[in-house]
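User: Show me a protein chain along with its predicted structure.
Assistant: Here is one chain, sequence first, then structure tokens.
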Amino acid sequence: MITETRSPAAEATLEILGKLFEGFDGEFAIRLWDGTAWEAAPGRPARFTLVLNHSRSLRAMLADPRRLQLSLAEAFLNAHFDIDGDLEGVLPLADFLFKEREWGPKEQLWAARAVRALPSSGGPHDRRGRPRLHGRRDSSDRLAQAVHYHYDLDPEFYGLFLDSRLVYTCAYFASPDEDIATAQERKLDYVCRKLRLQPGERLFDIGCGWGALVMHAARAYGVEALGVTLSRRQADLANERIGAAGLADRCRVEVRDYRDVDGEFDSVSSIGMFEHLSEKGLAEYFERVFSVLRPGGAFLNHGIGERYGKVRRRGGSFFMTYLFPDCALLPISTTSRLAEAAGFEVRDVESLREHYALTARAWRRRLEANHDRAVAVAGEAAYRIWRLGMAGFAWGQDTGELNLWQSLLVRPGPDGASGLALQRSDWYA
């Protein structure tokens, strides 16, 4: 349904949007800057409304039809348009545009010509632009640049949506309505149980964030734990917390590349780090971890990946540009193959994708409830990046396009012994 009176710019905008969304069957609405309203399914409630904030909005949204996902995302990040209602509801429409709708050279040429008739995009632009990463992929310097872009915001920003421990990885829920703090503590303990940590052992935690796991392992399991991160702000806060908890004699966090750590460890954990590596970098990663793990030691590798052969993208990815620069989400078959090539025995692989969907939604609810403070601390664009990213990851886990796996790997002893118990019952005791 369209309002009676429309400006020329509104008329042209609706015509382009109508062609763009042709073939998509869903309940949504569009509201333009001049009050013009349009409904995709009149008589049915809209799950969400696309709100174009000015006559230049559509030109910004279609600024680069060859990289449509990035173009639309950047228009959203810079407030050229908003999404009222169910944010996750817009993702099936995005999926249609990026994967199902034909978007070849003919369609790209049509879009480029159509938007030229619209007013210049101009308008608001936030200072948080695309990251500019330099150097060899997977190098320490380039990884540090990506980490700085994502993780070195004011810790207060993360505190607005994470639990009090600042655990920034998938939680482990007993029920869908459980609070995030309880689910995160259960996850930390679950990792320690899978590794079967014992007092006096040495644990190496790669990509340790703000130190929640090394603190829990030292306090609850009596291990000596070393965590490494490439973020100075993370390390400083982690060590401050470690000191306040009286754990400085048992654990510490250092600003170091994981490849620069020598010695031998009884167990290694990596919770949400390996996604930052390419396939080539991941091969090096497994080889390096294998070299510092004692024979018979266990390695818990936890991270997000894609379902094999499921995801097809056109142009650049919003998630791998703005949320996790240089990120590579690989299928579990690839990570398992590379782990075995490095010498590991794969002992267990568990999918936690439903848990990650619950985690991302809990984070988004908390972030949205703290909108004003989040914008004051990190800016409107950063708020929108994380809000959209959390919605996307929850939807991706729900649909099965993404997954979250925990792999328990073992470096076999000289005689091939794994050193593991015959059953997993102690994981759940």
